[in-house]
Amino acid sequence: MTAKRARNAAFSGIILIAAAIWIFPLYWALTTSLRSENRIVSDAGVLMDELNFSAYTSVLSTSKLPIWYLNSVATSVIITAIVLITGMMCAYALSQLRFPGRKVLYLVVVGSFMVPVPALYVAQFVLMSDLRLVNSWWGIILPQLIVPVVVIVYKQFFDAIPKEMREAVLLDGGGEFTLLFKLYLPLNWGITAALAIITFISAWNNFFWPFLVVTSEDMMTIPVGITQVNDAFGVAYARMMALALLAAGPVIVGYLIFQKRVTEAVMISAGVKG
Amino acid sequence: MSLAKRRRREMRAAFLMIAPFVSVFALFFLYPTLKVVALSFTDAPLIGEGNWVGLANYAKLLGDRLFYTSITNNLYFVALTVVPTTVIALLIALSVSRLKGRMQALVLTLFFLPYVLPVSVVTMIWAWMFDFQFGILQPLIATITGKPVPVFKNPHWVMPMIAVVTIWWTNGFNVLLLIAGLRNIPADLYEAAALDGATPWQRFWRITWPLLWPITALVLTLQLILQLKLFDQVYLLSKGGPFNQSYVVLMQMYREAFQLNHGGYASAIAMVLFLFIVVLSVLQFQLLRIRGMRK
């Protein structure tokens, strides 16, 4: 028994070392960001033995990071809200109501999975330009509102709710909207949170589309904005890493807080669980 | 309330409920999809009208050396990422699922964390790790090759290293899916096998591998589609260079449309990628399913 226990301990140790190596780039970024620029080019000790925040204060005062935060938060929140509300209503109709074109709509939603979204960017850019939305929040937001997986996941969960519950509400004189918002939605807060998290993360992290539709620095989101500073600094490793970590901060903290929900959300969206 | 009236009310509610999604979907997804198809038959600039040129753009593509380079590089990148990331994810998932409680949560967090980072943060960190002068990985590279290598400016190193960065960034997703798959395998199967004296090796190949296959197939398919859409990492780390060694299809679409102002030609490139992904993903999924059934 003790031999087995020793083997398990050794195994845990090896895995932990592997995980530590895996996360090393992030640790190294943090260590670098907490050093002075002079030290970085003269001494490469791996221990985090200095807590110098000058790179952070410098980045915060010289870059447009606060504006990019605002743009990222605003666009990601609006995208998440619209995607969830439109998606859940559509899923409810697909799951519970009979109407002509229902099967076709469902097939189109499922089929749209196969379309590689970047292949549409040229046409979407032309559309945004026709609508005079280039360099605006709505220009960033509108093409990101198509998240078919939200409709499909909601539909699966709505399908699973027993019909008797719906009859009871209908007998009380409630309409379909009452049913959705007073019965189906409250029964699915967990999945709603999960879908909100993945929609938010992918909107927050989207690089390619905001990069195309925004050219003015004041309208950039975080992932696009930080690539601008990159060129402006020249050789300034501590500041670059401070910038990267300030940009990643919200998602890292958010992930650590809502860890279980994020994991669940990833699995549900891939159709593995649920 | 009469039945007919009830049906009418149900239909009205349904149309009201699908209206927001359907209008957004039609305007910002279906319309652009049709527009790309239409644009690919014209000589339109990025912004503005063009003339119908029939299949001229596609004919031009067939003779475009750079386009062949792009496709080859895309396929090279797929080879460098899809199977390796799945194997690595499987090893990690198998190891993590043997751990218990807090230890398991901690290790899983460390492996998953890079997945939530924005791509430009990932590329900034790795550009620093690989920095030619002060990068912490250069001593390691120097011990292997004898001298430091500017990896994203070196034609041989650029694609494999972009693959390394990509695997580091996206692997957590695969790990999660595979762990979920492993949890769905009933534990009594392993107990029965242990009673019959099956070795760990036999248990893996007779129980874990076949029962996990649907998830492994899913991971492979999702990865194939994802990695064909490579753009961000290449744009941020090497801009397609050096000597076009990391030039990929979406890079070419971007350059044709947004730098050379060839909207029509860029749309034809987008169409080819589109068809490529549809055909490959359907094909691969079918192949994997058939192989899975035989086992």
From TrEMBL, chain A:
Ranges that cross the membrane: 9-30, 67-92, 104-125, 137-158, 179-204, 236-258
Membrane topology classification: Multi-pass membrane protein
Keywords: Cell membrane, Membrane, Transmembrane, Transmembrane helix, Transport
Gene3D superfamilies the record matches: MetI-like
ABC transmembrane type-1 domain: residues covered: 69-258
Keyword ATP-binding: no
First-listed, main subcellular location of the protein, grouped into a coarse class: membrane
Protein name: Carbohydrate ABC transporter permease
Cellular component aspect of the GO annotation: plasma membrane
Family of the protein in this entry: Belongs to the binding-protein-dependent transport system permease family.
Keyword Membrane: yes
From TrEMBL, chain B:
Name of one Pfam family that matches: BPD_transp_1
SUPFAM superfamilies in the record: MetI-like (SSF161098)
Localization of this protein: Cell membrane
Chief subcellular location: membrane
The entry's keywords: Cell membrane, Membrane, Transmembrane, Transmembrane helix, Transport
Protein family according to the UniProt entry: Belongs to the binding-protein-dependent transport system permease family.
Protein name in the entry: Sugar ABC transporter permease
Organism, as annotated: Sagittula salina
